């Protein structure tokens, strides 16, 4: 699946929660989905225009262009449901840390250890952030949406714990003089 339908899913999904401007969409996607998805303004605004042309979204304040709030239409909800049901393919991963470690023999002495300690810090910070989100999710009333948010959060927690474990093991495995 190309990037555009994924961007449409992110935008339609965010708008299914409530009307937003392009700026608010970017903030919502970053704040809520940022641990596993991101969109730039360069992706959001052209996609909003396409979705508006197709009738999937409309301006909540007709005629206004600057700072327009967009809302999802019933046709947009149908598109969202259809796109969410499509199989997805995972793009090849791009991991800058692993790229550097693969060529680690070319790194200055101590740099690999610095990179791994930074990864340990990132994973530890992520686990703290996920714990705060978990407290918010647990406080929500039981609902289908809460169940799905919890599943997504669980993925993030497992991923961060795995990164933390791996980075600690990798740091311990490094020769002392590297």
Structure description:
- It is a single chain.
- The protein has 178 residues and is mainly alpha-helical.
- It folds into two domains: 3-85, Arc Repressor Mutant, subunit A (Orthogonal Bundle), CATH 1.10.10; 96-173.
- It is 67% helix and 3% strand.
- It has seven helices and two strands.
- The chain has helices at residues 3-17, 22-33, 41-54, 74-85, 96-102, 111-139, 144-173; strands at 57-59, 70-72.
- Helix 1 (3-17) packs across helix 3, helix 1 (3-17) packs across helix 4 (74-85) and helix 2 packs across helix 3 (41-54).
- The protein is elongated, with a radius of gyration of 20 Å.
- The protein starts with a helix and ends in a 5-residue tail after the last helix.
- It comes from Nostocoides australiense Ben110.
- This is PadR family transcriptional regulator.
- InterPro entries: Tscrpt_reg_PadR_C, Tscrpt_reg_PadR_N, WH-like_DNA-bd_sf, WH_DNA-bd_sf.
- Residues 94-174 form the Transcription regulator PadR C-terminal domain.
